[in-house]
Give the backbone structure.
Amino acid sequence: MVKAVKPAPKAKAIKQIAIYGKGGIGKSTTTSNISAALADLGHKVMQFGCDPKADSTNTLRDGAYIPTILELLKEKGKVDAREAIYEGYRGVYCVEAGGPSPGVGCAGRGIITAVQLLKQQKIFEELDLDYVIYDVLGDVVCGGFAVPIREGIAQHVFTVTSSDFMAIYAANNLFKGIQKYSNSGGALLGGVIANSVSSGYQKAIVDDFVARTKTQVLQYVPRSITVTQSELAGKTTIEAAPNSEQAKVYRELAKRIEAHEKSTAPSPLEAQDLRAWATAWSDQILAVERGEVRSAGAQI
Ligand SMILES: Nc1ncnc2c1ncn2[C@@H]1O[C@H](COP(=O)(O)OP(=O)(O)OP(=O)(O)O)[C@@H](O)[C@H]1O
Ligand SMILES: [Mg+2]
């Protein structure tokens, strides 16, 4: 829990970023490493977990879980937002929105309630934040999870995907959500973070998808045992293995997010075009395996 401090004399522009992606794809891991790396660069960062599981921020806090805003509201009725903010690695402010009991209510409403609480109490200004990073569950199949995009809560959206079809399918759905709200002040797309992308053909699949949907890859993050080891120690890779190759990858990613200014509306593929695209890649990989063509990275 953080103490009240005097508001900063003049509010500065806060960069608000939302990280989306298919379940289990690596959103919280990537987000926490970005937060840690931005904090190392001297920025004031808040990581805002928007997942009812409330497990976004624990590697910033030695594996410890924190009470969620919705839990506190349920318990007390009225909450000083500072009670829900906990400091983690290098002073990163950790918040978990929480969610309704499983099977009851809308998690999207929980996100709005939690963000409104912090905004009403002018917490972002008081903490003089440079970045708020929302770690959001889901691929916008439920309108609730579109809240950070739709309500103008975030300015830039990044999506974490691998080269697996279902992860790309989720990213494409997210692009549809962004495109839908792009003319009414919704958040725009900054790009794709390619996670667990190690081989040439995995890279080629993601590269082709971003080219077709008119976006970009911000960073390729390999699958790494260092991430597993760090997570088991309850830490981000930035904290547990600062000199590792993987930490270097996350630091470069954070620098690219720092430098990123202009997000755009993506061009999602229609369902039948996405299917045809996937089939073409399937044929391509098969042809490579049979030795009929040399590289899966070739044009299709
Ligand atoms: N680059 C990587 N290398 C190795 N392991 C990884 C990598 N990225 C993520 N993981 C592992 O994958 C698992 C899922 O990651 P994470 O919890 O970040 O996913 P998520 O998208 O936030 O999931 P959820 O949708 O459940 O919130 C974790 O155990 C994490 O350590
Ligand atoms: Mg997560």
